[in-house]
Amino acid sequence: MASTDSEDMEKDSGTSTPLDNGGVANQSSLTIDASENDQSQVKDTIMHDLSSDNDEEIRKELLTTVVESLFNVIWHGINGTTEESWIERSQVFVAIDSYAAQGQLIVFPSIIKGSEASYSNKFFTIKKIIFSLDEVSIEQLQNATYTIRIIDFLLSSKDAELDPAGTFDIKTLELTVKLFDLLGVWGYGPSDLGWMDMIPLSFKILISFIARPQLRVCASSVSRFHHVIELYVFQRQQEICYVLAGIYKALCDSLVASENNNFSVLVPLMRSILNKYHDQLCLKDHAPSLPSVQNSQIFFENFLHYMKTDEWNSFMEKKINPLAQQYIKETFNINDAVNEKFWFDCCKTNSNSVTSLDEKIVNPSRKRFESDVLRLYIERRYLEKDRILNRTLDQKKQHSRCIGRWNLTKKFYLGERGILGSKIVSTPVWKLCSTENYSRMRLKLLPQYNADTHIKASQLRDNTGTGKSSASTPVSLLANIAKEVPVIDPKEDDEEDLNSLMNNNSIATLEQKGEEKVILIEPCELVIMMDEIPGNLKLTTNRICFTDLRSEITDGLPYDFEISLSELREVHLRRYNLNRSAIEIFLIDQNNYFFNFSKEIRNKIYSQIMMLNHPNLYYAGIRSGADLLKASKLTKLNMIAGRTYNDLNQYPIFPWVLRDYSSKVLNLNDPQSYRDFSKPIGIQNPDRIREIQERYETFEDPTGTISKFHYGTHYSNAAGVMHYLLRLEPFASLHIQLQSGSKEESGNLFIAFRFDCADRQFHSLPMTWKTLLESHGDVKELIPEFFYLPDFLRNISSTLKFDLGKLQSGDRVDDVILPPWANSAEDFIRKHRAALESEYASAHLHEWIDLIFGFKQKGRAAVDALNVFYYCTYEGAVDIDAIDDITHREATIGMIKNFGQTPTQLLKEPHPRRMTQEEATNYSRKQSTLGQYIPAVNLFKNLSKAKTYFIDASAGLGKLVYIGMPSLQTRSFIHSGMLDSLITLTDTGIFGVHGWLPYSKSKSVPFTFELDGSIASRNIKNRKGLNWPFAPDIEVLPKLFCISNDAKLLFSGGYWDNSLRMYNINKGRLQNSNSTFNDLITCMSIDRTGRYLIVGSRDSTTAIWEINQGDGINVTPIRHYYGHDDEVTCVGISSELDVVVSGSKDGSCIMYMIRNGSYVMSLWPTANQENLRLCEIITLTISELGNITLFCRHFKDRTERGEYFIHLYSINGHLMASKRLDKRINDMIVSKHHVITGDVGGTVTVRNDHDLNEEMSFQLNVPVRCVSISSNNEHILVGLDDGKLIIISCNIKDN
In terms of DSSP H, where are the helices of 307-320? Predict the structure, then answer.
């Protein structure tokens, strides 16, 4: 793995020599030194090719042509008998073996070198010498000698082992023997010139033929050996032993092998040798029991038995084999040296010839081979390396997953709410949850129990860790330099063909009687931040299904899921890697998914979904960005422009709002506190303007590919997001992966996970702003979390925290250093958001929108505004689909992800300025018709001018314990203009349905209220009531009741039979009753969307139901929640944040998740007083931002009154504020930024939601029973003990 590309290519294309395998005498072959597995693989490949070719005639004809061509090259193409000439001839065999080693031959190399009928043709000249000439010249004898050496090489090569039948044939044997006769090797023949060095070689060749299992070949060789023994006189005892040992080994192999009858001819040969050389071998001394060699018939049978005796085996092992080995060692050393040198020279000459040929003639076919084959090989090799490294990382992830599951099981039993657990537990690592509220804020953190504090990453940053101990990540496929493909500017709307697609009525035929049918199945990728999960998307008439097609699932379970089409809320067309190929789907439960397709498939899927036209899909048309932009907030604007949390390269963009990060007090009324919204962030420092202009004017790209630009970096990219969110998972892990580098140890490639150095991390807001003003490469804008999520500014991951290193000054990096005017992270977020919503920012924000989303994003206006970025950040700069080369394409995608992506341009004209508050008020007045109604004003912005209005809403029928104002009361066109319903309920169970409007039809009061006639009626039968007694030991409070958002159903609890009752409000009668709990129902709550009902009981459990509008709830709840040790006293729910909260008399508040029921955390409010160690939670609320307000009684003993406290927690469990109260609160509600309480002393108090400080209080002098607020925060409605309804409001006439 550590070898370079050039080294790998040399290994692939190099030529081997006999030296690589130990020489010819040691059964070497002219092949690459490959393993036995490689040879087997080559053999299997060749045999497969042979078996797959049915036309034998064509194959033989091709083989004959090749052999004849080689014959002509050897004998007619090269003249001379010198060693140099034979070295040149032998290059043919070197080339054959080289091609065979590379797997480029379709037959065995032995077949080409000499097999069957072709072999004799190749040595035609030798046969002519033998049979046609009367006299033989010295030159011809030299040719014969070299020919014998080549034959020895062929017979001893490894390719002969692959095809023995084609190598050791009769014709080869006959030709070889005649050559030996020609040379007079055995002392007879036409010439005896003393070729004594051929004698050992002749014995070796004959023995190799004797060892063949074919009887015919063996018999012919034995016959020749009989002839040699009769005429040739062995000179040395070692020579006799060498021949005897070779023949005996062949005999033993024949006896062992089945269907091998060679022993029938080998035993007589053994008899002849033993008979002739009986004395030289000293057989009387070493083998006295040897059967008589005189009678051949008797010897044959007796010798086969004698071979098994210890005497004979000892004779062979101690006498014959040692002398034979000595003969091999002494005799073949010279032959080995000669052969090794000869073949080495052949290989060297062949290599030089090839190199010389390449230098003289440029081979076009080789270039095509390199581009068409070798390039693919290199790409595949990189992919294979990638796969191996990915596998290592997958194993680590799987290990972490297993540990995580074990920790979850351990947490279930030993956690703070486990059976065997305690309240004291270790703090987990916190991960940012993907759940969003309706303002697209991701507010919630989730605990991770397989906590990794990245200690090794810190050690590697400080050079105190090892690469081998760290995990591995894939080697990047990005090339160092990649030229992009400029394309034509994209169309204004590439969805122009969608209308034609949507006019297709094919889906109508699929929806028959509710039958589900498949519409289409297409390949896609599920995009999750930085990952792409390949899969298939199936669209049916009822569902969208995604199937994970990864071959290796690394994180435990596949990402397979189904989405009911009734759950769809929005579907948006998206870009991915600047290519219009993606779709983002938003669901009612605040989940969302990002799918990437090809462009054609994307448009088809979008049109098919739109044609299904499900009722909850309110973004079911194609509207221009300009139309949507005019009434949108900044988060919505990002969404329209294609920015998404699902792709870090297209993360939402928010502006730097302030420039004052040094003052102790932030003055939002001072324009000097704000940045210049009309200029890009890169030129907020006026000193840089000239430099930026010169960079643009002087830049020239010689290739013409790169356009002029002002900034080489971008204001939004994945690296910037990780930079800001470093202290939260999963961004900490992504940051570490981004900063990691490869490290090689012991020839293996590892990826060293490390944090970036401390000075480059996000550690200080004042320093970050200073860097923006002074640095030439930092032009990052902000992300949405700067305006709502204080937790990303704190290093809260665990008790150990992330070790982020030390600055050069020696200070350790921990929590982000805040400006002096911010007391805490929450204080910074609140003031920062207030700055964004300030009058000055509202009056100038449109200038920033023009730069990022509007007409100054591109073109001449962008040049004039110094707002041009690197060309590949703009849509249309490159066309990924037009790039065929995989390496080039991956490099281009990597460049896009590295530099960032400019949002879709929404406007080509200036964005209108937003109205100020005064202008909006005046406009509202002008729009109203005088005398008809007076528009209501926001109460919380005019608390000092609020007044109280008195209404008798119960007619003395009891205490007013509940006021319900449904948030979703739909009206048909015929009933438009009718009053909404306002429901009141007394402690005696009588409820009224009153008429209500939040504005006035007269000038006297700022609202409209019409009393329910049944309340004032003297006829008891006309009154609507619950008609079921409450339990005697329960106090009737507002938390026992809920109303559905459509004002049709009233849910109530607190009954003696533990039932949950559902009443039809319009009919005033019981619709359904449900008995689920084992004790009294003590509290309930409904979420803002009206989808879920959460109910708590005295049996310490809670349950959640899904509400079917108009039909109520099912008998069985969708989930039960456990964990409390005492009565559940209050509950809260937020479906958009996927959170359920319950408070109990055990002094704890537990948070769960709605969708999967997982336990998140417990809150244990304290009074910080030694004598108030016990606590019970009386009531709670949860706001749109997830802030949890708890009203508690702290005491030393339950018999004591104790003291009352109100505590404010963030959704992530951070205590924001605590206040001590003098009186008990009966009811508490929350608006967007305020908490409203009503106490037994008759006081209604309005507090802010960040420090619980009192902003206004209203003294009513009668105990408050319940509090409610109108949907648009215009009015506070209060129910009193005396049955009166108090409305707190602000009349616009007073403004």
Answer: 310-315
Give percent of the chain with pLDDT exceeding 90. Answer: 29
Q: Which residues contact 1262 (CB under 8 A, 6 or more apart)?
A: 1242, 1280, 1281, 1282, 1284
Q: How far apart are CA 344 and CA 348, in angstroms?
A: 6
Return the beta strands (E) in 494-611 as ranges.
518-528, 531-540, 543-548, 561-564, 568-576, 579-587, 592-596
CA distance 977 to 1241: 39
Instruction: Please report which residue ranges of 799-916 form alpha helices under DSSP H.
Output: 825-836, 839-852, 859-864, 886-899
Element (H, E) at 37: helix 36-52
- Measured between alpha carbons, how far is 483 from 891 in angstroms, rounded to an integer? 9
CA trace torsion 299, 301, 303, 305 (10° rounding) = -150
In tens, the pLDDT along 799-830 reads 567 888 888 888 988 899 999 999 999 999 99
What does DSSP say about strands 1174-1182 and 990-997: parallel, antiparallel, or unpaired? unpaired
DSSP string over 844-878: HHHHHHHHHTSTTSSHHHHHHTT--B-GGGSTTS-
Phi, psi dihedral angles at 1112 (to 5 degrees):
90, -140
Query: Residue 551 gets which letter from DSSP?
Result: S
Q: How many CB atoms lie within 10 A of CB 593?
A: 19
Cross-strand partners of 743: 750
| More confident of the two residues 157 and 1095 | 1095
Q: Report the alpha-carbon distance of residue 216 to residue 202 in Å, rounded.
A: 19
- Give the pLDDT confidence score for residue 1055 in this predicted structure: 92
Q: How far is CA 428 from CA 347, 401, 452, 1211, in A?
A: 67, 15, 9, 16
Calpha distance 789→795 (Å, rounded):
13
Tell me how far apart the alpha carbons of residues 265 and 375 are, in angstroms, rounded to a whole number: 57
Length of the chain in residues, anyone? 1295
Can you name the residues that pair with 1081 across neighbouring β-strands?
A: 1097
Query: Crossing angle of helices 263-276/215-231, nearest 10°?
Result: 10
Give residues with Cβ within 8 angstroms of 499, minimum separation 6: 622
Predicted local distance difference test score (pLDDT) of residue 32:
30
With 60 as the cut, is the pLDDT of residue 553 above it?
yes
Cα-Cα-Cα-Cα dihedral sign, residues 33, 38, 40, 44: negative
Residues whose CB is less than 8 angstroms from the CB of residue 1135 and which lie 6 or more positions away in sequence, other chains included: 589, 590, 1087, 1088, 1089, 1091, 1092, 1154
- Mean local confidence (pLDDT), 95-123: 56
CA–CA distance, 593 with 588 (Å, rounded to integer)? 12
Instruction: Determine which of 8-17, 1023-1032, 1203-1212 has the lowest per-residue pLDDT on average.
Output: 8-17
Q: Token pair for residue 551?
A: 């071959």
**DSSP codes of every residue in 68-91:** HHHHIIIIIS----SHHHHHHHTH
Tokens coding 519: 């519409």
Q: What is the pLDDT of residue 675?
A: 95
CB 195 within 8 A of CB 184: yes
Whether the per-residue pLDDT at 1072 is higher than 60: the answer is: yes
88 pLDDT higher than 80 = no
Tokens 């202290």 sit on residue: 727
Greatest mean pLDDT among 37-41, 265-269, 307-311, 1224-1228: 1224-1228
Q: How far, in Å, CA of 1185 to CA of 1170, rounded? A: 33
**CA–CA gap between residue 253 and residue 18 (Å, rounded):** 28
Mean model confidence pLDDT for the chain:
78
> In the predicted model, is pLDDT for residue 853 greater than 50?
yes
Picking from 1046, 1066, 1065, 1042, the residue whose alpha carbon sits closest to that of residue 1054 is: 1042
Instruction: Give residue for tokens 């809150």.
Output: 1163
Tokens of 365: 């076919």
- Enter the DSSP assignment of 665: S
